[in-house]
Amino acid sequence: GWIEASGKGTVYAYTVVHNNSPSAFLADVPYVVAIVRLDEGVQMCTNIVGCDPAAVRCDMPVTVVFDPIDDEFTLPKFKPLQ
């Protein structure tokens, strides 16, 4: 079933993508792909945004932000917890 999550967690693992050509994401490099472990215990694959990719670290506290892609889709991404 569904449960409401806090939207907070920590970076479990990550990589910084510096070259992804040819790709629809070429304009986004460098970007961070990460596994975030939510406080509720669930892990999810996502992006870390809102900071320099070189600043991302394992166990870094993060919080969810929502990126509306279009009228139908919104992606959960994470930024450092301030």
- Please count the beta strands (DSSP E, at least 2 residues each): 5
Strand order of the largest sheet: 3-2-1-4-5
**Silhouette:** globular
Radius of gyration: 13 Å
Sketch the topology as an H/E string, one letter per element.
Answer: EEEEE
User: What is the helix tally?
Assistant: 0
N-C termini distance: 31 Å
User: Helical content, roughly?
Assistant: under 10%
List the helices and strands and how they pair.
Layout: E1 8-17, E2 31-38, E3 43-48, E4 61-68, E5 74-80
Antiparallel strand pairs: 1-2, 1-4, 2-3, 4-5
How would you describe the overall organization of this protein?
This protein is 0% helix and 48% strand. The protein has no helices and five strands. A hairpin with a 5-residue loop joins strand 4 (61-68) and strand 5. It is globular. The mean pLDDT is 94.
For the structure shown, list the relevant keywords.
5 strands, five-stranded antiparallel beta sheet, single chain, mainly beta, about 0% helix, about 50% strand, about 80 residues
